[in-house]
Write a structure and sequence with these properties.
With 323 residues, this protein is of the alpha/beta class. It has helices at 28-36, 89-107, 129-142, 154-158, 160-163, 193-197, 280-293, 316-322, and strands spanning 14-19, 41-52, 55-59, 72-79, 117-121, 147-152, 170-174, 210-215, 219-223, 229-233, 246-248, 253-256, 260-262, 265-267, 272-276, 300-304. It contains 8 helices and 16 strands. Strands 1-2-4-5-6-7-8-16 form an 8-stranded parallel barrel. A 5-stranded antiparallel beta sheet has the order 10-9-15-12-11, with no helix packed on it. The chain has a two-stranded antiparallel ribbon with strand order 13-14.
């Protein structure tokens, strides 16, 4: 049975995914997961909004080609927090107009009609909250028939009285990023359940309904002789199996025995690697903790992200059990 969060009947919590690449291309593995899990919606990052040399502009726009795609696509726009620092009313209104047109232009390449939902991803702060919330309110007034959702970080749940609550139809709690991704300590920066649960003890009081986003990605942190660290995305345990190049140290740590390439980055002999992965057991603990503090039914779990390399150690059965 698929258990939902805190509901009396064993109704299925919907499974969804984020898609965060700049070229939209679903391979056979990814399509297999979509079909097996009966995924109805995929949250696709359309572009970022950044501030460069004082100008607000779109960046890293997705390339759909002219592909059609059967699950419903939900556009996601990532907005840098800096965009809302000292933004004028004119700039804000201009941003809303251009952003709405750009989203619909990209959406029309792959789907019919208007999006049923648009999601904004912004790690706002106390100083930008007023401008960001104003943006969301005005955007909703401009697009009243589109459901508006926003990502919510763990710290924005714990300190919501200080950070404020966005005026949206629904939030998505990003239940990951519990540490600094360049930290070389033993803690897992993707998700440390002991840290995460301390942020959600008052989640039941959060004023808007929440879906949950959970991580299924991995990465490696490389440290050189000057103690400088660098992140390499998508590294798996299998990538470090060759003992000619990598010597296992204590749990999750490795020594580069011989200079070589790892996911396109050249590593030098003597450098150290910390591997951070997410196991199904980690996500089961996360779900247990969320259920404890958030008795409301969670309609949807969105896994970050839809990429074949993330499915090496997590099966469709695992994802069903987690949700």
């Amino acid at each position: 049975n698929i258990l939902c969060f805190g509901c009396k009947k064993k109704e299925a919590t919907q499974i969804s995914f984020y898609y965060w690449n700049t070229i939209f291309n679903i391979d056979k593995t990814e399509q297999g997961y979509i079909d097996t899990l009966k995924v109805k919606e995929v949250y696709v990052r359309f572009f970022d909004i950044i501030k460069e040399n004082g100008r607000i502009k779109p960046n890293a726009q997705i390339d759909f080609g002219e592909k059609t795609f059967s699950p419903v696509i939900i556009p996601v726009v990532f907005i840098e927090n800096a965009v809302f620092k000292n933004i004028s009313e004119t700039e804000l209104n201009g941003l809303i107009q251009h952003l709405a047109k750009e989203v619909q232009f990209i959406y029309a390449k792959t789907q019919k009609g208007l999006p049923k939902e648009i999601q904004f991803d912004c790690d706002w702060t106390k100083t930008t909250a007023k401008a960001y919330f104003n943006f969301l309110e005005k955007f909703k007034a401009n697009q009243p028939n589109i459901l508006l959702s926003a990502t919510i970080r763990l710290h924005q749940i714990k300190y919501y009285n200080e950070t404020g609550v966005p005026k949206v139809d629904k939030g998505v709690l990003m239940y990951y990023s519990t540490g600094n991704p360049l930290d070389f300590s033993a803690k897992n920066a993707i998700l440390d359940n002991e840290i995460a649960k301390n942020y959600i003890k008052n989640i039941g009081n959060y004023p808007i309904k929440l879906d949950i986003a959970l991580p299924i990605f991995s990465w490696a942190i490389v440290k050189n002789e000057f103690n400088e660290t660098r992140l390499i995305s998508g590294v798996k345990p299998i990538d470090l199996k060759d003992t000619m190049f990598f010597k296992p140290l204590e749990k999750h740590f490795f020594l580069v025995k011989k200079s070589n390439y790892l996911n396109g980055l050249y590593l030098y002999q003597g450098q150290r690697i910390k591997l951070e992965t997410i196991e199904p057991a980690d996500l089961m603990i996360a779900v247990k903790n969320i259920k404890k503090y958030y008795p409301n039914k969670v309609d949807k779990i969105i896994f970050y992200n839809l990429d074949g390399i993330n499915f090496d150690n997590i099966s469709t059965t695992d994802l069903v059990q987690i949700s």
